[in-house]
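ok so I'm stuck.
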Amino acid sequence: MRNVLSAIVFVILIPACALAQSSTEGLACFANLATPEYPSAALEAHVDGSVWTTTHVSPQGAVEKIETQVVSAWGEGPKLLTPPVEKAIRAAKPKPECAGKAVSVVFRYQLHGEATEHPEVKSRREEPNIVWIESAPSLVTETASARKNPAKSQR
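replied:
not stuck anymore, here's the structure
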């Protein structure tokens, strides 16, 4: 099973790597790219993964289109990790020298350590184009379970 998963990840990563190499500058193309949040639902479900992005910047310097590819061992990875990444990119201001270009940035969501009730999310940047968003997983508390399944908590 592990070999199958490795093969799948490899097949997905090769085109993504080629995509990243054909794009330009990465993080240097954004004046104010904020770190995306690590969604609480992903922390509670212990979901991690990488969101590979190619942002097409219009000739006028606006974010025109964002292409994403998610590599995650978890089925919920794309649904949980893509929206905060797209939100951060859309809120960022591309630099004028990147107008008309495709910009590649990889957002790596990584979990480590034991689950905790209030995990601290940290981030770091690795030039030219990687943003790490790291945290311990979140414990699923009774109140979190009640939010997900309100009918069960009212029985």
